[in-house]
């Protein structure tokens, strides 16, 4: 009966995630996504986004950290006083809403868009059937998430004395990842790896409408379309090392207070995506409902195969934390603070052998989290509060002047339901807010953005073993 209930819960979670992803992925509008494979989507979970995206040395079974697969070794196998024990399975789902304001210096215009986008759907499973932290040392995570997003709609109008030329640039698509990750801990050292399949599309249309204002000539609009699909495998190894700096126990307390320093690093290795492109150039007209009707095909080529070279990217950092310890188990975090540095060799990116307007990027992230009172019955006192920032250089270099990227972040997380000896379910909600800017005074187009992200983590016991008299 228990396995049936768990299977139903997981199936419902997966169905919600897939429906969610299918309906929310096509709302974004960003002209920056015209280059490379589009806007890079955050790899961090919602919890770490609230503290600047610091994730290289972060681990939390209630918010799966796929940015460093070594963190999976911390997934819990729990034991209760009534003799019940089992693997604490975590279902993790996230999405984001962002509001963007684009400003063009040359045109003196402002454009706004609001976008609703999926972040990830993933499941974490502990593989060690031990409740004690000294013996708990392996975990498995699998999931689906976007890696990049392409969606833009840009219109350029040129007015002359005898004609009006309107050019519409449209693009849609992006890169997605389905993956499985494993991690193993050896004393203080944890090693993990994500391996997965990447797939996606890049559909680009350039439509030109020419109107002769000086005579009675009419010109048919033209369209140039390129539809590319790509796919391939990727590997992401990760490592972390955790050091207990000190531990002390106060008189009358059942727990000790300990300070930990953790280092972590992860990298997505350089890899090649296979691709296939269909190209079409045609003239067309519009029907009464606004749809396009082809008139004459000028050029058509299908299934042109090629390669897309994706460079290596890496992330490394540290985290200092204060935790409450019972026996050998760190049962709760009072506070944590850390920093990450990430970079990518995007100058090595190529699309069918051609370079694009992308450059090497880097990012510095700093942030932390704090719980006012771990034992308080009040929701806001026992919630987790996070604050951070990030600053760096974007990989997209649209105008040749490079784009600085920076943001202030904050967020909080709280339990909707806590574990008890009679109910093994819990729900944890994480939120993150980002206020930032892409570009500066040297760029023709700049972007101010506000992002809100919501993560929902559901935990339940599987593989239950019960103690009978």
Automatic annotation (TrEMBL):
<feature type="signal peptide">
    <location>
        <begin position="1"/>
        <end position="26"/>
    </location>
</feature>
<protein>
    <recommendedName>
        <fullName>Long-chain fatty acid transport protein</fullName>
    </recommendedName>
</protein>
<keyword id="KW-0732">Signal</keyword>
